[in-house]
Amino acid sequence: MSSTAVRPVRIIVAKVGLDGHDRGVKVVARALRDAGYEVIYTGLRQTPEMVVDAALQEDAQVIGLSIHSGAHMTLFPAVVQELALHSGHAAPGHRRLAAPALPEPEELVLEHHRAGDLVVPPLLA
User: Fold this and answer.
1) pLDDT digits over 34-86, tens only?
2) Is residue 115 one of the residues assigned to a domain?
3) I need a labelling partner for 113 at 20 to 30 A (CA). Which of 30, 52, 87, 105 fits?
4) Number of domains in the chain
5) Residue 110 domain flag
């Protein structure tokens, strides 16, 4: 009897931009690991290019962005654009982007810039 090993989903979690608050992203990374995902945390002050390079090098299926500085409307599209530049290096539709919790109008704008599936957690009121 042969068994095929199922590789866990590999997730890159990144703090993009100048935001220096990383406690929340570390909690999320730990929770994802505890749930069986393979998580690579890239650290603070990453550029969109650094995040996409790490995702390609690590063969990640998901990129999770943590942005508390308010620059998400600039940085999220920059990561998507960088992914598009490297789309020949990745399987089509293989990349998924997870955004921070956003108000609905901002979510709609970012959805316009998406590559793959945009996953946005609901805002807690």
Assistant:
1) 999 999 999 999 999 999 999 999 999 888 888 888 787 788 888 888 888 88
2) yes
3) 30
4) 1
5) yes
